[in-house]
Amino acid sequence: MRRRYLLSAGGAAIGSIWLSQYLPERSQANSRVGAKFEINKTDDEWRKILTREQYDILRREGTEAPGSSLLLEEHRAGNFACAGCSLPLFNSKTKYESGTGWPSFYASIENAIATRRDGSRLEVHCRRCGGHLGHVFDDGPQPTGQRYCMNGAALKFIAG
């Protein structure tokens, strides 16, 4: 019985991933937040410069598995930038260990992000290319009290 359940669950997961490649995509960030961005690309152009995971997160509002990002262990001085357009978004001085499994920050770099309400959550997007980064919550540390819970695949680290 247990083996049958595992095989069924595995088959369903693989089928979902395969099928998602052929279903209509969710709206791109450009139309989601209703704004024009400094950087606009077609889906094909984004797919050429992003990995599959980056594309799913930045352009389709996906979420990476908790604890999977190598950026959780990144503690050097520098900036965390958008993986899509390289805009610096968060300074390493604002990064902290939230225990959630995603890189977390208590503040963004000024004029780096855009937000939009998604039900009870506040989505965070790159203000330059509209890429989906994660969400912001009001349960972070001082001085802001905010927790920017970001997908590591949506970011890249630039030391310095």
Summarize the structure.
The protein has a single domain (28-159), classed as Metal Binding Protein, Guanine Nucleotide Exchange Factor, Chain A (Beta Complex). It starts with a helix and ends with a strand.
**How far do the termini sit from each other?**
55 Å
Main-sheet strand order equals 3-4-8-7-6-5
List the helices and strands in order: HHHHEEEEEEEEE
Mean pLDDT: 84
**Principal-axis shape:** globular
Low-confidence stretches: 1-34
Q: What name is given to the CATH topology?
A: Metal Binding Protein, Guanine Nucleotide Exchange Factor, Chain A
Number of domains: 1
The computed structural class is alpha+beta
Helix content: 10-25%
Number-wise, the strands total 9
Oligomer: single chain
What proportion of the residues form beta strands (DSSP E)?
25-35%
- In the CATH classification, which architecture applies? Beta Complex
What is the CATH superfamily?
Answer: Peptide methionine sulfoxide reductase
CATH class: Mainly Beta
Biggest sheet character: 6 strands, antiparallel
Number of helices: 4
Radius of gyration: 17 Å
Overview features:
160 residues; alpha+beta; Metal Binding Protein, Guanine Nucleotide Exchange Factor, Chain A; six-stranded antiparallel beta sheet; three-stranded antiparallel beta sheet; 4 helices; disordered N terminus
Question: What do you see in this structure?
Answer:
- The model is unreliable at 1-34 (pLDDT under 50).
- The protein has 160 residues and is an alpha+beta fold.
- The strands form two sheets. A six-stranded antiparallel β-sheet has the order 3-4-8-7-6-5.
- Helix content is 24%, strand content 25%.
- It has a single domain (28-159), classed as Peptide methionine sulfoxide reductase (Metal Binding Protein, Guanine Nucleotide Exchange Factor, Chain A).
- It has four helices and nine strands.
